[in-house]
Amino acid sequence: MTRVLVTGAAGFIGSHLVEALSARGDEVVGIDNFDPFYPRAMKEQNLAEVGKPKGFSFREQDMLDVPALRALLTPETLIVHLAAKAGVRPSLADPVGYATANVTGTAAVLEAARQAGVSRIVFGSSSSVYGDSTPVPFREDAVATVPVSPYAATKRAGELFLGSVAPIYKLRAASLRFFTVYGPRQRPDLAIHAFTRKMVEGRTLTLFGDGTQARDYTYCDDIVAGILAAADWTDSAPIGVETFNLGGSRSIPTEAMVAQIADALGIKPRIEWAPMQPGDVQQTAADLTKSGAVLGYAPKTPFPEGIRRFIRWFREAYGRAD
Fold first, then answer.
1. pTM flag (> 0.90)
2. What CATH number does the domain containing 81 carry?
3. What was the pLDDT predicted at 279?
4. Number of domains in the chain
């Protein structure tokens, strides 16, 4: 049994991770500050779906409160730091809020870890750090110094901050670059969730660009499997930070993504086109060579199956029969 602190535990990925950790017998402490980026009720529903598994406790708490965070830690605790303000386009309107949550928040978590003598950390980063100039598929050793949104810049800054203190604090850490995660409990602002809702409600979809933009969509269960593998890896890893891609192994163009949702719903979508938005990138694609070799990571959920699972959850969660 491992004692694990999960920041952002009421969120999309965090709530799935809590379930997986609890299922394998770990003692899990989850925290979340219920940031108003999307309705609190949705995060409360995430926790309701998790239930009260043995060994899991939850606290409404802000990671910026270092003394309160420190009180939850022991030297043996593994920290999985997922709490963050997410989203490329919203970060353009709130760069200060994103810097506070994603950079200062990460610094606060690491300071609490230092004070408690914690040595194992898994950090949730993003494929956004690669920007729009990294050769495809993205490799972890790419320079990644030209982010194209405040969100991407703050996640890269979090990676750099972790890398700067890990040797000093004697941390064994994994930085995980998530590629467009989807599945049950997905945030309502993300494309798959938003497009599903609009199709069901008979509204027009606005697609940006020319339809050729593509994302490496990764099902939430595969991401959680990668996090668990990284968590176990930190138990015997050398001091310092290693970066790993966690992706779905295939880039899906925007039009193909919409068609897959429409097929699962049995609905013909109405579509309008608009110019590509600031902060967006043309394509994301993960090179999984390193994460496969070191972590044994191998995504198992084909995109059509992942979409079907999401649609089933959406209908149950929102009472949409058709």
1. yes
2. 3.40.50.720
3. 81
4. 1
